[in-house]
Amino acid sequence: MKKKILIGIAAVIIVLGAPSTMFGEDATPAEYVAALGKATLYANQMHMSKKALHEQLISEFGEQFTEEAADYAVEKVKANWKENALSKAKMYQKEMNMSRKAVYDQLISEYGENFTKEEADYALEHLPK
């Protein structure tokens, strides 16, 4: 009976993930984990650019995470920045009736979406004509 309980506990630890401190490693700070959660939301549901995402995470009008937490989140978030640019481009084209040139300018503007030129080029190449 005791053996079954220990095996059960071990299975739960494996499934849930053992706290890294059990193995002498430092745990990821809670703020970093929270920043990554927000980064995932902004990157994958709102299709933000990498730079806009970072700004949102540290902004006093946004999430107010530390620079370090935001850096961690932006580095770890799983996002396709080119596809995010394309999603934004489609939205501007369809919902705001913007020209291709205006869409491109909006994508790369520091006052707009803040995508890289490479990401904006990808978006325009794949944007319906």
From TrEMBL:
Residue span, Putative host cell surface-exposed lipoprotein Ltp-like HTH region domain: 31-76, 80-127
Phylogenetic classification of the source organism: Bacteria, Fusobacteriati, Fusobacteriota, Fusobacteriia, Fusobacteriales
Protein name, entry field: Host cell surface-exposed lipoprotein
InterPro entries recorded: Ltp-like_HTH, WH-like_DNA-bd_sf
Signal peptide: 1-24
UniProt organism field: Fusobacterium ulcerans
Gene3D superfamilies recorded: Winged helix-like DNA-binding domain superfamily/Winged helix DNA-binding domain
Keywords, ordered alphabetically: Lipoprotein, Signal
